[in-house]
Write a structure and sequence with these properties.
This protein is an alpha/beta fold. It contains 4 helices and 3 strands. The chain has a 3-stranded parallel β-sheet, with helices on both faces. The protein starts with a strand and ends in a 5-residue tail after the last helix. Bound molecules: flavin mononucleotide. Flavin mononucleotide binds next to helix 1.
Length: about 110
């Protein structure tokens, strides 16, 4: 069993990271493997709404000019995911929104699995 946690803050040791570490420590105690992926501050673009993932149906985003497919693969291989984000103007960070939009659309295009 493995859980992957995304830190949506560009501050690798900030409040979001500290919160995630508290949660992951509990999971570790239960014998669950964990990994923190530093998402904030990484190169991730928004969804192009190109719809190509609906044609290819290969569990991947057709946009290849950033790291999103690496993150999608990590989600695919995990048994559970946690998405941590700081509040930015009453919303999640841009990187987290990009992850949710693109991974979500790829998932919807592939029978709900990402
Ligand atoms: C661009 C930006 C926008 C923010 N917007 C809000 C906000 O709308 N509401 C709020 O309570 N805090 C806001 N904050 C503060 C952060 O959410 C807060 O400091 C958070 O704990 C930072 O998490 P981190 O240490 O993981 O980066 C904002 C911070 C930044 C940099």
């Amino acid at each position: 069993m493995k859980v992957v946690a995304f830190n949506g803050s560009p501050r690798a040791n900030g409040n979001t990271a500290q919160s995630l570490k508290i949660v992951l420590a509990e999971l570790t105690q239960e014998g669950i493997e964990t990994e923190i992926v530093q998402l904030g501050g990484r190169k991730v673009f928004g969804c192009l709404a190109c719809g190509k993932c609906r044609e290819t149906k290969d569990n991947r985003c057709s946009r290849k000019d950033d790291e999103m497919n690496t993150f999608i693969q990590k989600i695919e291989e995990a048994d559970g995911i946690i998405i941590g984000s700081p509040t930015y103007f009453s919303n999640v960070s841009s990187e987290v929104k990009a992850l949710i939009d693109r991974c979500g659309y790829v998932a919807k295009s592939n029978g709900g699995q990402c």
